Every structure is written in C-alpha cells, then in structure tokens.
Amino acid sequence: DAGVIQSPRHEVTEMGQEVTLRCKPISGHDYLFWYRQTMMRGLELLIYFNNNVPIDDSGMPEDRFSAKMPNASFSTLKIQPSEPRDSAVYFCASSPRGGIHEAFFGQGTRLTVV
Amino acid sequence: EDKVVQSPLSLVVHEGDTVTLNCSYEVTNFRSLLWYKQEKKAPTFLFMLTSSGIEKKSGRLSSILDKKELFSILNITATQTGDSAVYLCAVEGLASKLTFGTGTRLQVTL
C-alpha cells in the first residue's frame, strides 16, 4: 500500500479563491482525519470521519471550511473563500477500526494564501 | 475542551546528552496518550500509553504515563543528530478524537 496520499503537495492561491485539498486513505481504514498545522497553534484536528460519516467537525474554523467523504477511498477539504490566515500545512490521516495509534499520516499539503 | 501542553517548547543539546520531554493533559474520557516524531514531513508514531507506571521502550527512547498526575514523559538517551525533530504528544479522548500539543522542537548538535 502506498500509504495515505494527499494532493496537491503544495498550493499557492490568491485570497478569495476556492481551494480543494484531496486525500486517499489507506484501503480498509475506517477512520479519516483532517488536521491543520501552524507554528502558532500546532496540530489541530479539523474533522474526522468514521465509515465515511462525519463524526466531529467541531474543529472546523468556520463556514468557509467544508469536508466531504463520498466514498471509502476519497475525501476532500474545501476552503471557500480562502484567506491568508488559512495558510498552513494540512494533513490527512487514516486509521483502522479501533486503532488510533495506527493512524498513518499523509505527507501533507502546504497551503499558502497570498 | 481537551488540552495538551508540552514543555519545553524547544531544546538544544549536544550529541550524547539525555533529554526528557514533558506532556501534561486534560481530557474527557481518556483512552490513551501517544507520542509522535515529526521531522520534515508527516508525524510518525512512537508510543501509545494507556496504563500508569508501565514504561514503553524502543531503543534509546522510552516513555511513561502518570494518569493520576495527568502527564507523560519521553526520554531519549545518548542523543544523536538524527533525533533532531519536533516531538508531538497527543491524547485520545471520546470517540477516538486526538488532541495534539504544539510539540517540543529538539535540536541535537555535534
């Protein structure tokens, strides 16, 4: 298995534009997590899914952020409209049933909003 | 709200030194505490701790949990330059939700 795959690896966009980040979890993993990492706030959980269903989205900063998981092999995190303060590294992670310690992280998407 | 505080924020040591990293937490429905190492890219899993007083060990790294005092430590003995990284502590709470600390940045110099 290639692990958790995120795309793009880097994204530079202008303020106000829509940004879509993509994640392919490890096959067979029931949990999928979206995290955001900044120097100031560290690694923050934005939202996570269990069996494609959003379980907790309390970490989503505001309505400009949305996440979907249409099937077990794909998830998106969308920011619309983007703002400079959204600049961060966004990680996707997946984990098998009951195995949070087995959460494997993708390589992250570095987002820069100018 | 679950909370994880790590200290120190950063640390510079010489190769061969021993370091201790600290993690204190407040969490509803504690399930486990996890340590990760993050170099340039994604965090990689080191340890999961669920019981107090039982040391987990992997090579030069070891960790222990105190559920009464709500903290954990990560020890690295005989540090090497390859240990330079950010070390993240996370706690697993209700419904497998992970809350991370901001990390301790360790730099090991020659």
Summarize the structure.
The complex is a heterodimer of chains A (114) and B (110). With 114 residues, chain A is mainly β. Helices cover 0% and strands 54% of the residues of chain A.
What share of the residues of chain B does DSSP label as strand, in percent? over 45%
Count interface residues per chain for the largest interface. Answer: A-B, 23 and 21 residues
Q: Note the beta-strand portion of chain A.
A: over 45%
What can be said about the biggest beta sheet of chain B?
Answer: 6 strands, mixed
Mean pLDDT of chain B: 93
Write the H/E string of chain A, N to C. Answer: EEEEEEEEEEE
Taking all Cα atoms into account, the compactness measure Rg of chain A is 13 Å
- Helix run count of chain B: 0
Number of distinct beta strands of chain A: 11
Into which percent range does the helicity of residues of chain B fall?
A: under 10%
Helix content of chain A: under 10%
Q: N-to-C terminal Cα separation of chain B, in Å? A: 41 Å
- Tell the overall outline of chain B: globular
- Cα end-to-end separation of chain A: 35 Å
Structural category of chain B is mainly beta
Question: How would you explain this protein's 3D organization?
Answer:
The complex is a heterodimer of chains A (114) and B (110). Chain A is an all-beta fold and 114 residues long. Chain A has strands at 5-7, 10-13, 19-24, 31-38, 42-50, 53-56, 65-71, 74-79, 88-95, 104-105, 109-113. In chain A, strands 2, 4, 5, 6, 9, 10 and 11 form a 7-stranded mixed β-sheet that branches. By secondary structure, chain B is mostly beta strands. The interface between A and B is medium-sized, with 23 and 21 residues.
Provide the fold topology.
The complex is a heterodimer of chains A (114) and B (110).
Chain A: E1 5-7, E2 10-13, E3 19-24, E4 31-38, E5 42-50, E6 53-56, E7 65-71, E8 74-79, E9 88-95, E10 104-105, E11 109-113
Chain B: E1 3-7, E2 10-14, E3 19-26, E4 32-38, E5 44-49, E6 56-58, E7 61-66, E8 71-76, E9 85-92, E10 98-100, E11 104-109
Parallel strand pairs in B: 2-11
Antiparallel strand pairs in B: 1-3, 3-8, 4-5, 4-9, 6-7, 7-8, 9-10, 9-11
